[in-house]
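Researcher: Let's try something more involved. This one mixes different molecule types, so please make sure each is placed in the same coordinate frame as the others.
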Amino acid sequence: MADLRSPLARVRGLGSAQDGTHHWWLQRVTAIALVPLVVWFVISMLRVAPEGQAAVRAWIASPITMTMLILFIAVGLWHAALGMQVVIEDYVHGKGWRIGLDLAVKFIAAALIVAGIVAIFKIAFGG
Amino acid sequence: MSTADGPVSRPLSPHLTAYRPQLTSMMSITHRGTGIALAVGLAWLVVWICAAASDAATYGIVASFNGSILGRIFLFGWTASLFYHLFNGIRHLFWDAGYGLELKEAYASGWTVLAATAVCTIGSWLIASLVR
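Model: All components are placed in one shared frame. Result:
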């Protein structure tokens, strides 16, 4: 089959959307990372969720919880923002709305990640 | 493609509302739906953690919603969504790697995902009620 792309375009491999497989690949990387994180989260929630505030704070303040919880929130919201971007691109047709909603999703995800980390640090180091 | 006489009329594939529902297509749209639900659930998790970092009154507001009938419905929905999206996501990763793409295999893995979701969702809520 004849390839109408130039040799340079073929080497760059960016395709018509100019983004190549970067988005697709990051979605998979975060998905694979989330498998063990979700298993840890479910087991933790079974034990911790029904407890009172003091027990929840003690759980969050442990170094292993802090590490896993920050990873879960950050990777989870990253994966969510990538997924929401695809949903928005599929269903929102006006260019202004599409870009605006995608920016809103990205900003909200970033703000939630930072807020989660700040809250976890406050519990662990805030005295 | 459009011509001087207007757009060329081409055959279209059946629209979602005209196409007969089947396990594979329903599970595909459910994966997307549960993903959106889980994005909201993650936001609520951050709210819960922020409340835990705050005073007892603030934590009480979030905890009392979680314990309410409406809150439990949301939490049960998020539990089911989480297990579904986890298991169906693993199914997708196998497809990405080139495995299980035959029709029979896709149906078998689909039913497996649904069964695993039901067992893990009900099982985790049973364990949670026993722990309490």
